[in-house]
Amino acid sequence: MREWRNRMQISFEEEQQVFHLYNDKISYVIQVEKQRYLKHCYYGKRIKRWHSGIKDYYYDRGFCANPVEEDRKFSLDTQLREFPESGQGDFRSPAYELEDRNGDRNARFFYNNYRILSGKIAPDGLPHVYTDADTEAMTLEITLQDKVRNQRILLYYTIYEDAVVTRFAKWINDGTESIEICRFLSMNMDLPTQEYDVLTLAGAHTEEKNVYRRPLCADSVTIESSRGTSSPQATPFIGLLSPGTTEEQGEVLGVNLIYSGNFYGCVQCGQYGTTRVQLGINPYQFGWQLSPGTSFCTPEAVLVYSANGLAGMSNTFHKLYRTRVCRGWYRDRERPVLLNSWEGMYFEINEKKMLTLAEEAAELGIELLVMDDGWFKRRNTDTTSLGDWTEDKEKFPDGLQSLAKKVKQKGIDFGIWFEPEMISKESDLYREHPDWVIRSPLYEPILSRHQLVLDLSNPAVCEYLIDAVSKVLVPGNISYVKWDMNRHLTDLGSAYLDRKNQNELSHRYVLGLYQVMETLTERFPQVLFESCSSGGGRFDAGMLYYMPQTWTSDNTDALQRVYIQWGTSYFFPAIAMGAHISAAPNHQTHRSLPLKYRIDVAMSGRLGMEIQPRNMTDEEKNLCREAIAAYKEIRPVVQFGELYRLVSPYDGQGVASLLYASEDKSKAVFYWWKLEQFVNRQLPRVRMAGLDAGKQYRIRELNRIDNIPLAFEGKVLSGSFLMSHGLEIPGEHRMDADKMSDYASRILYLEEVNH
Ligand code: DGJ
Fold first, then answer.
1. What are the backbone dihedrals phi and psi of residue 414, each rounded to the nearest 5 degrees, phi first?
2. Which is catalytic among the residues 77, 90, 554, 600?
3. How many Cα atoms are found within 13 Å in the side-chain-facing hemisphere of 518?
4. Left if phi > 0, otherwise alpha if psi is -120 to 50, otherwise beta: which for 182?
5. DSSP labels for 639-668?
């Protein structure tokens, strides 16, 4: 008992009124000021004790409101706050706001009391970082109360063994009248300096998670989605980096939201050298009627601290998300290599083609065949049938289950595509239930990809979805589901919700989705669910809680994927990142890259194929077969190892490189990709990272197409040499005297040698 308690602790020092959450790595300190307000004191490397009273922010400044009448020096606008209100003189971005039925938005929530609890308290109905045992975490609950309005806000802080604190808040209406919550973020933190670089990930469909880093100036950086999903445009993630931070050095605070809907985040400079960081549900188009006796929970925010640069932050996120956000049977299991029908067949699928594909796939070493879009009633284009989840009898005369069994007889598993949240106007479901779609009662709803979104705030719709998907997922036949979502929410309006609750729709949509996924994943524990939203349109930690892998992007061009996967790797582990070998020319960019290059990029994630064996030469098939076999060998390192980004594609050096190392550092997989074609340019020597300096590693190149082995092929080199000196990687593949391939790439497998 004593032993585990020492790993993480929460103390309250009565005299200083200081809460200190700490473990071996980090400290998080909060102080109660003026017996009312929560001051953020510190989040960073573990400190022994917080010393208050050695610095103060109290000055009598112009335009400052003084909530404590007798103290002109005290103003909330100059304070470091933990969960700031609006309307009391802190003119920075507030964390919450209400409106009562008279239109009054004023409130006075003051510190009331606290509880320290073992284990984790989770937000109701929302995905979160979970624990396998109470001994893995401790939680601080702080209550703020507005005694005039009879409202409480409970702030939850959970500390784990690693450099992680999670936060969410719960609002409870103890009064006799309903109030509307207009804004309620998951976290706020005010930091005492503005010396930061801000890191965000933004993009678009087929262009997800570009990396943006800029120094903070005296203004704000805002990130948000109002699309109904976390979106490909923005990512609910903010990185604050001390200046000069690299992959291995510098301090980083990474904040991520475990949520799949509209979000808002900001980094805002205060007037007096402070920085405010916020993340939570987007207040835009949000409102929640809180009736007496009810409560509302925010999504959970994850705050990772790293004293070891970006690699430290990423590996903390990776381990946490892989082991304490992902759940179920597949959590700790290697993920199958799959072949997906989409880019090879699009809607033109049928039983005969799928069975041929299954045979060809099995022959290459593929473990799972996925039948993508096009299998259900009359679905020959993207204009019809979403909602009618029964097989098309013309394409599958013997039925889906018979096909699944036949595929299994060929020695591989069978998986299937769904887009359950959607409905086509041209469908039986729409004809039966036109009131089940999200729409305004006044206007014709706007289409996107010819489809509408189902109103998941309506429990009857959720029940229908659970039922429709369950009917297809006959245990033993179907091992995998690709869960797609291909349009965003417009025309917000629900025929199910009352008029006063219409502003709840976007959040209720997400809650409905979570409830559907909770039921299905519980009912089918051995089905592997993969999330997709036109690729990475909803690649977020909320989805990961239900579906332990995601289709990273619809852009399967390997060169583009180097960038997309690079950005995604900041906080998602490779095991969750679907990466498929595609055809040449590529279907999105129309660029032709060598097959080896396409393979070598895909092998740095969760490997699969879009390219169809029937379109490949024997030589190409051999290369793929060997690569798949090699991937199975390195899979434990890639999928469960630590990530070290070595040369960034953004650095302009013409190459990118990264490495995965097993936790015990006995094995590593090194990737190197050339990003453009050039001659005679000196390529950077790549220093490895994450190895054990004292270990010796034998180097073996995988997927080799050269006739001439690399100079270090088969050699035993020390970890210290590889990390301090590094290797120079030849920039082209020499097949013979006058034949060279463009876009060179290399994968090296390093295995410890014990002499
Ligand atoms: C979008 C997905 O990202 C694709 O992989 C494919 O499944 C299509 N939808 C099918 O409509």
1. -125, 135
2. 554
3. 13
4. alpha
5. HHSEEEEEE-GGGSSSEEEEEEE-TTSSEE
* DSSP string over 472-491: H--TTT--EEEE-------S
Q: How remote is the CA of residue 571 from the centroid of ligand 1, in Å?
A: 24
Q: Is the pLDDT of residue 196 over 80?
A: yes
- Is 664 an active-site residue? no
Provide the token pair at 214: 């800029």
376 Cα to the center of ligand 1, angstroms = 15
> What is the C-alpha to C-alpha distance for residues 560 and 566, in angstroms, rounded to an integer?
10
Whether residue 484 has its Cβ less than 6 Å from ligand 1:
yes
Helices (H), 346-394: 351-364
The CB density around residue 143, as the number of other CB atoms within 10 Å, is 17
413 is annotated as an active-site residue:
no
CA distance to 201, 736, 740, per residue, from 733 (Å): 34, 9, 6
CA of 484 to the centre of ligand 1 (A): 7
Q: 337 with 270: CB under 8 angstroms?
A: no
Beta strands in 151-262 (DSSP E): 151-159, 164-173, 179-191, 197-204, 207-215, 220-225, 237-241, 252-258
Residue 351 beta carbon below 6 angstroms from any ligand 1 atom: no
Nearest CA to ligand 1 atom 10: 373
Ligand 1 atom nearest residue 534's Cα: 3
Ligand 1 closest atom vs CA 340 = 5
Average pLDDT over residues 623-650: 98
Q: What is the band of 268 on the pLDDT scale with cuts at 50, 70, 90?
A: very high
Q: Is the CB of 486 under 6 A from ligand 1?
A: yes
Separation in Å, CA 469 to CA 185, 479, 746: 34, 13, 42
The whole-number pLDDT of residue 494 equals 98
Mean pLDDT of 717-723: 98
Of 437, 440, 419, 417, nearest in space to 429 by CA? 437
Q: Does ligand 1 come within 6 angstroms of the Cβ of 417?
A: yes
pLDDT of residue 6: 56
Q: Please state whether beta strands 252-258 and 300-306 pair in parallel, antiparallel, or not at all (unpaired).
A: antiparallel
State if residue 588 touches ligand 1 by the CB under 6 angstroms criterion: no
